[in-house]
């Protein structure tokens, strides 16, 4: 009997698994902004060595959905307080005009690894660094940070 016959439940096939009914665990659910036609989706793994500050302040052209695989990330979006995301936790950001200030490794004794799926607006780069002038102009939009 062929694999196709077994999959179709042909004579002599094994009983179908019921595991699919409980196999899915929702880790995160968000309502992203409109995704324009022609947008590109990409999934990447980002890895930083111990203590690395991560990507300089930047923005993404579309929403990003992430899952922390290992270690800890110090995460900060414009208008939100910085927070630590640990392995097994999720994060998301709307993209567009929101500055992503921090994504660095919060640990000095181990690497950090996270997986991110991003929607990139048509014709736009996935990541654009923000210069010091813009950071100064938007300073009032950044949430207070510990010790400031």
From TrEMBL:
At the top level, the lineage of the source is Bacteria
Show the Pfam families listed in the entry.
Cupin_2
Q: Which residues form the Cupin type-2 domain?
A: 45-116
Q: Which InterPro entries match?
A: Cupin_2 (IPR013096), RmlC-like_jellyroll (IPR014710), RmlC_Cupin_sf (IPR011051)
Region of interest called Disordered, as start-end residue ranges on this chain:
1-20
Which Gene3D superfamilies does the entry mention?
A: Jelly Rolls
Q: Quote the protein name from its UniProt record.
A: Cupin domain-containing protein
Q: Which organism is it from?
A: Streptomyces bugieae
From the broadest rank down, the organism's phylogenetic lineage runs:
Bacteria, Bacillati, Actinomycetota, Actinomycetes, Kitasatosporales
């Amino acid at each position: 009997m062929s694999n196709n016959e077994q999959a179709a439940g042909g004579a002599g096939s094994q009983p179908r698994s019921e595991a699919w009914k409980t196999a899915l665990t929702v880790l995160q659910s968000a309502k992203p902004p409109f995704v324009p036609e022609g947008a590109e989706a990409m999934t990447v793994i980002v890895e930083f060595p111990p203590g690395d500050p991560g990507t300089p302040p930047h923005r993404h052209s579309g929403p990003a959905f992430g899952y922390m695989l290992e270690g800890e990330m110090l995460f900060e979006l414009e208008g939100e307080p910085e927070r630590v995301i640990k392995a097994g936790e999720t994060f998301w950001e709307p993209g567009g005009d929101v500055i992503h200030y921090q994504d660095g490794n919060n640990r000095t004794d181990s690497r950090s690894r996270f997986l991110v799926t991003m929607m990139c607006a048509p014709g736009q780069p996935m990541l654009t660094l923000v210069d010091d002038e813009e950071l100064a102009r938007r300073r009032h939009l950044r949430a207070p940070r510990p010790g400031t």
